[in-house]
Amino acid sequence: MNFKSISPYFKFTNHQRKGIFSLFIIIIALQFFYFFSDFNQAEKNCPEKQEWLAFQSEIDSLKAIKYNEKPKVYLFNPNFISDYKGYKLGMSIQEIDRLFAYRKENKYVNSPEEFQKVTKISDSLLNVISPYFKFPNWAQNKKTFKTYTAKSFSKKENFTVLDINEASKEDFMKINGVGEGLSTRILNQKESLEAFVSMEQMSDVWGLSSEVIDELKKHFRVLSSPKIKKIPINDASLKELALFPYFRYALAKQIVTYRSMNGDIRNIEDLINIKGFPVEKANIIGLYLEF
Predict the structure, then answer these.
(1) What is the DSSP letter of 175?
(2) Residue 228: is it exposed, middle or buried by C-beta count within 10 angstroms (0-12/13-18/19+)?
(3) Is the dihedral of CA 78, 82, 88, 90 positive or negative?
(4) Which of 45-54, 60-69, 112-121, 133-142 has the highest mean pLDDT?
(5) Average pLDDT, whole number, for the chain?
(6) Exposure of 194 by Cβ count < 10 A (0-12 exposed, 13-18 middle, 19+ buried)?
(7) Which of 20, 80, 117, 286 lies at a 20 to 30 A Cα distance from 227?
(8) Given pLDDT bands bounded at 50, 70 and 90, which one contains residue 24?
(9) Which residue pairs, CB below 8 angstroms and at least 24 apart, start in 227-232?
(10) DSSP label at residue 221
């Protein structure tokens, strides 16, 4: 090989040699810096981020075991079963239609016996599905409620009935047993919900006795359809759901988990299947939600 032909490429001036030497020194310095430096930056602690990561981890773990578990049957109110729910329970189309016709008359079944009488299901099917029936507390104490009502309303009284959503603190204080404190609680409860949709919600106000609630029902009604900004149940965040008085954080978390694992919530029946949902208040809660 003729080295003379390539030797000119290796001849450098004094200035060039100094430049090459300086570049060599810089490369070595950068290698030492890279070798001895720790480029791992500690992430800033963010409580909200940690909480959401933990919550997402919990959802992922539930998804992982979902397909290995046997389907669970939760307690439900048979008044609100859908076509699909009835089919899954083993009911025929005719039996489901009988229940729907009964409900269209604004009637409710309050016991397994009534459910069988309306739907005409067999004894064997009733024995299988009735352990999962969950009726409101007032339905279980039906006899006591009727007797009390007869005594309370035996006398006819003449008074002006006011719209509960238009009443003032002074209007409430005219009722025996309602002072300034209880009147304020009623108004605060209405404000948290935007409006009352039923007089049955008086039982949700802390401190009201049954006698006072009966008096309130005599003097107040929901006389007009209140304007309520309904909660989009499938789009609302955990924080938004937790602010709703009937949900709070624990149930709101269950709803978000249910959405993540099963998709959109289609109706109140889906919500009833969620653990911890107040079934006895389903009719009222449904009026505040948008599906």
Answers:
(1) S
(2) middle
(3) positive
(4) 112-121
(5) 82
(6) middle
(7) 80
(8) confident
(9) 227/194, 227/195, 228/193, 228/194, 228/195, 228/197, 228/287, 228/288, 229/194, 230/288, 230/289, 230/290, 231/288, 231/289, 231/290, 232/290
(10) E
